[in-house]
Amino acid sequence: MRKLIAFVLVLAGLWSGYWFVGSTAKHQVITAWLDARRADGWTAEFSDFQVVGFPNRFDSRFTDLHLLDPRSGIEWMAPEFDILALSYQPNHIIAVWPPAQNLGFPLETVSITNSRMVASVVFEPDTKLAIDRTSLEIRNLELQGGSGWQTSIGSLILSTRQHPNVAFAHDVVFDAKSLHPTVNLLQTLDPAGTLPMTIEALFLDVQLDFDAPWDRIAVEEGAPLVIKITVNRMTAAWGKLGLDGKGVLNVSADGRISGTLDVALKNWPAVIDLFASSGAISAYMAATIKSGLGLFASGSEEDPLATTLTLEDGFMKLGPITIGPAPRFIRS
Fold first, then answer.
1. One-character DSSP codes across 24-56
2. How far apart are CA 95 and CA 121, in angstroms?
3. Angle at CA 267, nearest 5°, toward 266 and 268?
């Protein structure tokens, strides 16, 4: 019995030493990062910073955190901010934002409120620290600008993970529900006021192929470039309008995007009108597209219209009709 007690005490002492060394190292790393930002001219202030959670956690907790990048003019102020990790799994980091915070820009400050804002990242347990998977979950997000505009999202989930079979590829899922655009944006998109004020859902499931891994080297030397986008599924629902699509797009070294997306448009004439009212296409182009696609439509306008969006030689075509320049990745 004495040997067992002695063994337990030795283990407890070793674990306490490990936690002390680990928490001290984490405190020093974060403090060094803040010191480096100050040396670059940043504002990096807080009223309190501790690493707590003995014996099973390394939790970094800030109070009254204030960061300001003088070059961009972007400023962040939060009454509290937590960076959490299990002491026996330090490669899994969780960030927890407070229910209220402020994000400042050179011309405006945005007030942010939420009922839940949590993100996590899991690194591979080696010296390169490649990202294995990430997630972001936000509930009841509300943004209010200093100039008076407001927007909100009921729920938003963004997650990524390394593809199990394709090198340097990540699966990405974006799922947002109950989006309330600003009044100005609604008036721009739908000047006649025919659509509800809430966009019911936006969903995107894609595979992004990169030319290099997302790891420590990428942070130090530059982000990897997207070379291929596989759209497994994209959907949008806004009142009587709907969009479904899938396809494969390739990205060249100069950022040109080429490929095809098979899309289905619910209430397709109204979708084309929406593109026109938003300025994405001209009114003349909208009329041309509706005339051309009308030749392939069957049934009522409420029925989904299946067609193909083609990106080729720097231009986009919807069905057989060229609608304008294709988007392009800007690469520095």
1. HHHHHHHHHHHHHHHHTT-EEE-SEEEEE-TTT
2. 9
3. 85
The C-alpha angle 199, 202, 205, rounded to 5 degrees, equals 175
Quote the mean pLDDT of the chain: 88
The model carries a pTM of 0.88
Contact 6, 29 (CB under 8 A): no
Distances, alpha carbon 206 to alpha carbons 65, 81, 159, 162, 172, in Å: 35, 31, 11, 12, 5
DSSP string, 129-160: --EEEEEEEEEEEEEEETTS-EEEEEEEEEEE
The residue whose two tokens read 């095809």 is: 260
Residue ranges per domain, the chain? 1-107
Taking only the tens place, the pLDDT of each residue in 137-162 is: 999 999 999 999 999 999 999 999 99
pLDDT in tens, 1-42: 565 555 444 554 554 565 567 678 788 888 998 999 999 999
